[in-house]
Each structure stands twice: as structure tokens, then as C-alpha cells.
Design goal:
Helix 11 crosses helix 14. Helices cover 44% and strands 14% of the residues. The protein has 24 helices and 13 strands. It has four domains: 114 residues, Glutaredoxin; 203 residues, NADH-ubiquinone oxidoreductase 51kDa subunit (Rossmann fold), CATH 3.40.50.11540; 84 residues, Roll (Ubiquitin-like (UB roll)); 85 residues, de novo design (two linked rop proteins) (Up-down Bundle).
């Protein structure tokens, strides 16, 4: 298919859309899907048919609308009305309000910070297009970036644009995406591969899952552009088997893209050929690490290996391999369409663009958000998130999953960017953000994440395999009021040892929740120790100050 054929293809979808006076969008992403949203969609469609409105009103399933705590969600366009906590029994009430005042019992306000403080790039189509329809994606400028890149830009030019955009990997480490692409492009190999890392394993994280469910063609287009830039002809999407809805939609998107010639041989009548297959993970957190992921794709056990050599030079089956996570690749079509300057103007000097976060925990507006880099934690939690429910006080926010840290109230006005979070002892991670209130025990929080890391350790290296077990046992003893000062000192020594000597990122970052809670909430540990004397501790501090 050429651009001349692509444009009419998009226009036919837009013309069909124009014949309808209204569109009713029903969220069919996992959170709403699990609450029977497919039945809601069917019930609304049945009501539309019964009222003889099928020629003027279209019902379609869409991706995540963001505010998951209020789901299942239904939106009526162009009325701009959003309904929350809908059941199939509400179908008649919703249809009856079309072109009239919304049903106040069911409506959710849209003129709120949750919606108007966001800036959507990756999620620009979420909640608007049907994830099962390639026509809907094309009508939203889908695959135009791929066409223009293949016909107007050399591979070096694509990489140059990526480097100038300032996009950093959204999987956690924040490595410059353009630099990684450049390294793979320069690597010598008979063939090269592109892997989309959709193995989202952090507790409380659902960003990549929502992107894959809401806009699967966006992932494919980003992968194809990346493959063209680095010289790859084969791609794999590595997604955990616990994401059946994402897998189903990705498979459907691959079939549709192949049928129209956006994947396969001689894409857009150019010499470029690229195919994509899906590989399922078994839910091992360690497979988020690049070398462990590669081992799993190859059919082996998901064990990491020492680096170097890095996957960019020696990856899948020994060939140069580009690995980006789903959100990173989802940014690519927009960068190619709008330009590197447009993207780099968003965010901060060192952290460009936007970031998708899964906001969860003790916050009113639990859901999926996309915000510009540099926004403060306070704005996210209290403006967009709506603050802490039940009149409780904010205590801490945990970013970066098991590899991240807990940030206390005094740093709520710090900007959310890679360097700032690192200074606070946390990381951006893939985008999980868990809010805790005054009822949370930070020792228990550290123990929870250590238990997760302990159980997810692949066991290959002794520091991680044994160290996380020992740290968990010490945390368990302290949390039960059975720990001593010696236990606390031993815990800190183990944190240093595991961070410094573990083979891969899982072990190296596993102590982070412990280190950060000790840094900001040390008093909670001390109060649980059997031999802790607060008066003696105060006297020791005063003596230390005099000595200094």
C-alpha cells in the first residue's frame, strides 16, 4: 500500500465516522473488562438498535480512559459526557440522555485536574480508537510516520532525529534511546533483531499493559521504524502470559498489519522488510532484564548473564539486538511525525517528553496518567490524583517498583525526572507510583518488596539468592518486634554487599526500598528494636555534636 492508497483508506473511515451523530465509547481494557464492560457494550448496542438509532449512533470498545477507580467507564461524544461505574442495567439510561442533559447519577466530571493537567503523547489514542480496528488507527494518522520514514529519511537520519529528541528509555534505566539505536546500527552482524519488552513485572504497574491493549498498532509502527533505523528484519514482542487481552489484541494487530502490507516483505513498496512475532513470558520478574529476556526468547531459562558483551553487540542468538520497552517504542511514531524539536521542548533539560504512570495505593484517583517530565510529585498526587482518601495524611510515595525507593512528604515538590529521583534514593522505573498514607508501616513496606525480590531472584548468583533471603529474615524479625541493634547493622551491611556484588539489576537494586526507608524513616525501625533506648540515643547524638 502506498501513501496515495493509505490516505483514502483513512478518509473512508473518517467519512463513515461522519455519518454518525454520536459515538459511545466503552472502555474494554483489563480493569473495566474484568468488570463486565463487554456486556455493557453489548447492552448499549442492543438499546441503540431497539430505539432505531443505529444509523446515527455508533458504539465501540476503546482502550483505557485513565481513571480506573471509577470504572467501568462509558463516554458519549461529541457531548463530552463521561459515565462511571456503569453496569449493563444502565444502558437504557445512557441512551436516553443522548442530545440531552447527562444523567447526574452516573456522570463523572471531566473538567478536573485529572484530565486537564495531563499531556498525552503515548496515550493520545487511548479511549478514542478501537484497538481491534486498524482503520481507526490509520484515521488517527497511524502508519504515516512509517511511510514517510521509509520514503523520505535515511536510517542515519532516523537515528539522528531520535538522538535530538532526547528520548530516554522508559523501562527504568533511562538510557538515551537514540544512543542505543546508534550502537545497534553500527554493530556488525549478518542480521539484527528488535525486541519490544512488554514484560511488566513491578507490583502496582500497568502502564505497558494498557498501552498494548489500547493502541497495539502504535507498538508495531514504533518497532518497524526502529528496525529500519538499525537494519533489523525481525522483531519480537515479549509479553507476559498474564496479559491475555494484550496478547489477543497484539496478535490481531499483527494479522491486520500484514494483510495491508505494513509488516512483511517490501513494506510500502520499498526494499525494507520486517516481521513481528510474539513470545510469551511466564511471569518471571528477572526477565525484564535484557539478557534474561533474550535467554527466554531463545527458549531457555530466564537467567541473566554478565555484561559486556551487551545485547546491542551480542544479543538474540548472538546477533546485534535492540531492546526497548513498550512505552519507549510508543513514543517513536509521534517523534517521527512531529519532529525531534517538538518532543525535546516538552519536559526538562535532562528528561524530555512525557511519562506514563500507574497511580495506585492510598490516592483517590487511581488510574493511568501521562504527564510532562518535571511535574512535581505534589501535583501528581494531590492535583491529578485528588489527594489522600478518608481524611488521612500523606506519608510516602514509592516509585520504581521493587527497584525504587520511598519518598517522604518533605520532597513532594521535587520534579519528577531521572536525576532528581536518583538523588532521593529512588528511580523513575517503568512508571509504577504507589502512594502510602499515615497508616502504612515503612518496615512492612520494605519487607514486602524484599519478599518480592527474594521470590523473583533467579538464584544464579549467591549475593542475590542468599542476600535477599537474609535481608527478608532480618526485616521479618524487626517488623515483629524481635530485632536488635545488631540486626539493624547487619541489615545495612547486607544492603551494601548485595548492591555491590549481584550479577544483574534485580539484585543490585533489590535493597533500594530498604535503603530509602532507613534513610527517611529510620525511627520506625529503631522503635521496633528490643534493645533500643531512645534516651541513650539522644545523649549519643548530643555527644557527637559536641565532639564535632
Amino acid at each position: 500500500m502506498t501513501l496515495d492508497e493509505l490516505i483514502p483508506f483513512a478518509e473512508s473511515e473518517l467519512e463513515e465516522r461522519e455519518q454518525y451523530e454520536h459515538e459511545i465509547h466503552v472502555c474494554v481494557s483489563s480493569s473495566c473488562h474484568s468488570s463486565n464492560s463487554e456486556a455493557i457494550k453489548d447492552a448499549i448496542q442492543a438499546e441503540i438498535d431497539a430505539k432505531g438509532m443505529s444509523k446515527t449512533c455508533r458504539v465501540k470498545g476503546v482502550g483505557c480512559m485513565g481513571i480506573c477507580a471509577a470504572g467501568p467507564m462509558v463516554a458519549v461524544d461529541p457531548d463530552g459526557v463521561l459515565y462511571e461505574q456503569i453496569t449493563p442495567d444502565h444502558a437504557a439510561d445512557i441512551v436516553a440522555t443522548i442530545d440531552k442533559s447527562p444523567d447526574e447519577r452516573l456522570s463523572h466530571p471531566t473538567d478536573t485536574p485529572f484530565f486537564n493537567r495531563q499531556f498525552k503523547i503515548v496515550l493520545e489514542n487511548a479511549g478514542k480508537i478501537d484497538p481491534n480496528s486498524i482503520q481507526d488507527y490509520i484515521a488517527a494518522d497511524g502508519y504515516t510516520a512509517l511511510y514517510k520514514v521509509l520514503n523520505e529519511v535515511m536510517p542515519k537520519g532516523v537515528i539522528s532525529r531520535m538522538m535530538r529528541s532526547g528520548l530516554r528509555g522508559r523501562g527504568g534505566a533511562g538510557y538515551p534511546a537514540g544512543l542505543k539505536w546508534s550502537t545497534v546500527a553500527k554493530a556488525k552482524g549478518e542480521r539484527k533483531f528488535v525486541i519490544c519488552n512488554g514484560d511488566e513485572g513491578d507490583p502496582g504497574a500497568f502502564m505497558d499493559r494498557s498501552i498494548m491493549e489500547a493502541d497495539p498498532h502504535r507498538i508495531l509502527e514504533g518497532m518497524a521504524i526502529a528496525a529500519y533505523a538499525v537494519g533489523a528484519d525481525q522483531g519480537y514482542i515479549y509479553v507476559r502470559a498474564e496479559y491475555p487481552l494484550a496478547i489477543k489484541r497484539l496478535k490481531n494487530a499483527i494479522r491486520q498489519a500484514k494483510k495491508l502490507g505494513f509488516l512483511g516483505d517490501n513494506i510500502f513498496d520499498t526494499p525494507f522488510s520486517f516481521n513481528v512475532d510474539i513470545r510469551l513470558g511466564a511471569g518471571a520478574f528477572v526477565c525484564g532484564e535484557e539478557t534474561a529476556l533474550i535467554a527466554s526468547v531463545e527458549g531457555g531459562r530466564g537467567n541473566p548473564r554478565p555484561r559486556p558483551p551487551y545485547p546491542a553487540a551480542y544479543g538474540l542468538w548472538g546477533y546485534p539486538t535492540l531492546i526497548n520497552n513498550a512505552e519507549t517504542l510508543a513514543n517513536v511514531p509521534s517523534i517521527m511525525r512531529h519532529g525531534a524539536g517538538w518532543f525535546s521542548a516538552i519536559g526538562t533539560e535532562g528528561s524530555k517528553g512525557t511519562k506514563v504512570f500507574a497511580l495506585s495505593g492510598r490516592v483517590k484517583n487511581i488510574g493511568l496518567i501521562e504527564v510532562p517530565m518535571g511535574i512535581t510529585l505534589r501535583e501528581i498526587i494531590f492535583d491529578i490524583g485528588g489527594g489522600i482518601p478518608d481524611g488521612k495524611k500523606f506519608k510516602a510515595v514509592q516509585t520504581g517498583g521493587p527497584s525504587g525507593g520511598c519518598i517522604p512528604e518533605e520532597y513532594l515538590d521535587m520534579p519528577v525526572e531521572y536525576e532528581s529521583l536518583k538523588e532521593l534514593g529512588s528511580i523513575m522505573g517503568s512508571g509504577g507510583m504507589i502512594v502510602m498514607d499515615e497508616t502504612s508501616s515503612m518496615v512492612d513496606v520494605a519487607k514486602y518488596f524484599m519478599e518480592f525480590s527474594m521470590s523473583e531472584s533467579c538464584g544464579k548468583c549467591i549475593p542475590c539468592r542468599v542476600g535477599t533471603r537474609q535481608m527478608h529474615d532480618l526485616l521479618d524479625r524487626i517488623s515483629k518486634g524481635m530485632g536488635t541493634t545488631h540486626d539493624l547493622h547487619q541489615l545495612e551491611e547486607l544492603c551494601d554487599m548485595v548492591q555491590a556484588t549481584s550479577l544483574c539489576g534485580l539484585g543490585q537494586s533489590a535493597p533500594n526500598p530498604v535503603v530509602s526507608t532507613l534513610r527517611y524513616f529510620r525511627h520506625e525501625y529503631l522503635e521496633l528494636l528490643t534493645d533500643y533506648d531512645p534516651d541513650a540515643a539522644v545523649a549519643a547524638d548530643e555527644t557527637s555534636e559536641v565532639t564535632q
